[in-house]
Amino acid sequence: MCTLEKRGNIYILTLTGDDEHRLSPALLDSITAAIHRIHSETTTTPSALITTAHGKFFSNGFDLTWAQNDPKRYKYMDAKLQVLVRDLICLPMPTIAAVTGHASGAGFVLAQAHDYVMMRKDRGFLYMSEMDIKIVVPDCFVRMLKNKIGYLALRDVMMRGDKVTAEVAVAKGVIYSVHDNAEETVEAAVKYAEELVMRNWDGHVYACNRKKLFADVLAAMDADETLEDMARANGVSSRL
């Protein structure tokens, strides 16, 4: 489902295979476990995380086939994604999403949960599908996107369901940078991660400042009873 590689002080988390990387509970758990592993290994040494994917999809959103129009199953996936996004916000290092294919719905949210989003321009688009599939976006994700994207761009992405290519996305400030193909996108992410590591930032301070930046997002998650109910049912904390 996903692999985790460490190159020096850079972690590379890759969604594997050539499918759509739909965010099923199993895939969400796999990614979250990898983030927890990174967090457990992090010491005082500055590090960085890159998340990318094989194939023509970064992630095509939630596994709606698994949900089968069951609101409880959909809410279950949503709660798991909230846990993953919280973990990324709390991770004590810079994070980069190297988007090498389509990122739709929850896949778009996953990419935007990183500090920087880099994207290939020869294939793929960003797409918030919720308007088209009649789903209300959870408050915490709306707050996160408001913190990262200007109003006009967010209106077009969220309220019109525009399918945004990399070149349009970088012009609108939706992503950080654009690159010719998948290989160059990952290479650019690694190069930038190396530059960030060289800044020698304190990971704890970095995480604390990010949590302050996204305090309203974390507050919305804290207010979501489903998130805490799921955590209690599994005998775990919903926080790192």
Automatic annotation (TrEMBL):
Presence of keyword Isomerase: yes
Any single Gene Ontology cellular-component annotation: peroxisome
MF GO annotations: delta(3)-delta(2)-enoyl-CoA isomerase activity
Family annotation (CDD domains): crotonase-like
Superkingdom classification of source: Eukaryota
BP term (GO), one: fatty acid beta-oxidation
EC number: 5.3.3.8
TM region(s), chain numbering: none
Keyword Signal: no
Pathway info: Lipid metabolism; fatty acid beta-oxidation
Reactions the enzyme catalyzes: a (3E)-enoyl-CoA = a 4-saturated (2E)-enoyl-CoA; a (3Z)-enoyl-CoA = a 4-saturated (2E)-enoyl-CoA
Keywords: Isomerase, Lipid metabolism
One Pfam match: ECH_1
Family per record: Belongs to the enoyl-CoA hydratase/isomerase family.
Protein's name in the database: Delta(3)-Delta(2)-enoyl-CoA isomerase
Origin species: Artemisia annua (Sweet wormwood)
